Inverse folding.
């Protein structure tokens, strides 16, 4: 118990998330493919993700660059706040 308190006081207290960096990590995750697969199909989603990885860019950029979906739909499907709450972005959950 004492070690946990010392650890908290010396290492944890004061830590702040770098919100922009966290958003960048979230945008680059392969998990976003699951949000677009129901709309574009699994194979197409996987192909788009491979392109994103090869170019080291977010899947959102590939979708926009290749005009796979309208920007509004991309924004709805890849709404990070909604996806973090669970369920599908733009869905009823």
């Amino acid at each position: 118990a004492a070690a946990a308190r010392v650890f908290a006081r010396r290492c944890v207290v004061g830590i702040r998330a770098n919100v922009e960096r966290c958003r960048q990590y979230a945008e680059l995750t392969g998990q976003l493919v699951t949000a677009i697969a129901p709309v574009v199909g699994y194979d197409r989603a996987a192909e788009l993700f491979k392109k994103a990885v090869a170019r080291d860019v977010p899947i959102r950029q590939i979708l926009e660059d290749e005009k796979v979906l309208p920007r509004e739909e991309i924004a709805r499907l890849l709404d990070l706040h909604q996806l973090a709450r669970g369920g599908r972005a733009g869905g009823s959950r």
DSSP finds seven helices and no strands in the chain. The mean pLDDT is 91. Residues 59 and 76 are 14 Å apart (CA to CA). The domain at 20-85 is CATH 1.10.40.30 (Ribonucleotide Reductase Protein R1; domain 1).
